[in-house]
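Example record

One chain of 459 residues, shown exactly as stored in the release files.
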Amino acid sequence: MTFKVATRAVTKNINIVGAGASGLYACYKLLLLNKNTDPASQFKLNINVWDKLPIPFGLARNGVAPDHPEIKNCIDTFREMFNNKEDPNSKVKFIGNYNFTKKEEYEELLAKSDLLFLANGCEKSRNYRMENMTSWNTLTAKDLVDWYNSYPYEGKEPNREWKNLAFWEKIENVNIIGNGNVAFDLCRLFALCKYDKNDIDKTDINSKFVEVINKAPLKKINIIGRRDFAHAKFGTKEYRELWALSKYGVYGNVDSKYLPEPEEGNPLPRALSKRVQLTKKYIKLQEQMDEKNDTLKWELKFLQSPFKIDEKEKVLYSRENILDKKTLKITPTEKVEKIRNDLVILSIGTQNSDSDILTELSINNPNKVKPVGWLKNKGSGSIAETMLDTFPLVEREFKYMDFLNNENSNEIEDFNFLKNNHKRITNWSDYLKIEEYEKKEKKGKKCESIEELLKVLEK
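Predicted structure tokens for this chain:
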């Protein structure tokens, strides 16, 4: 007697929480693996991609610097998944404007799923304590990234005095704590708003951000890292772009004491060596230039831990650190530097505010619940790195997927937690309508609130 394994008729329910890069790359890889499988062994994939915003794409839409449109090219790939109606073995639905906050909601989702991918991301800024921190002298990088990317707020926007010129017209010296790519993006965008206003405003950047920063009397931006040059997290591309601001008369500096030198018989790693040579080259070139006193300057500072803001003296106090290169442990010293300061920006990373629920869910269901992206990697990684990290994980899960048919419904109308929901749930067709509205009516700029997004759908 021979047994025929049920194949094409086998339905698999997949739910993905988070429609950003990691969640959509997980979806893309599942579809690709299934499509490239022998037709007799393909599954019927019924995939829901959920997001708390009415719109998809996460940080690919709302987090990438506006002057880096090439990084958003992944959106074209993601768009094809939702538009594809030709694959009989896959059904991908976008379900927007629903925020999972309760353990019971996740448990119902899990009960109906063969796999549940958690791609919730990390949107809460990490904590950093300094003496005399206030909402008037300290902002988070997320505050500013959300502003220049028009991240949609919900309800009436809180009173944001720091979004007005009255706040920024007093800001000359800015200190950014943290030296990853976001810190570099902020520094670069400040410069572009001041010296290339018309071109940067042709992107989807928030026009009010451009207008306000353009008029701010910025003179100096320090980017301060707690570790050394060799262990800084910024990318070479972003580093080159900072030096390239010299075409606007915006000059940078890195004290030579921070640059590592190769030891005898132990050369610097190739990537680090290139970064050191790049620094020396630009410093030498800029020493030959006629620097204007009234233009913005930037400087990278390393092995520093700011600990106190002095409002009266307009000073930031920072301790010098010693780094153990083997353990990467930081030891603060008693040596203190006083740095001119009007505003501190914290660019020290993000975390997930629901991590306790999600961690418990993952630990208790290791075979079905799979964290991906920033949630998995604690807020680190670029969009490209997210793809490279997510693909092998999905490939492994697909390989071991069983051939048992899932009899549960994965349709939106059959989720109990939605039956008492009073919010307008959005779908892919809704997003296409919003996209068209932003393109035509807003001239490429983005809607700035959830209320504005949903109002488009009433037209």
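Notes: Residues 1-7 have pLDDT under 50 and may be disordered.
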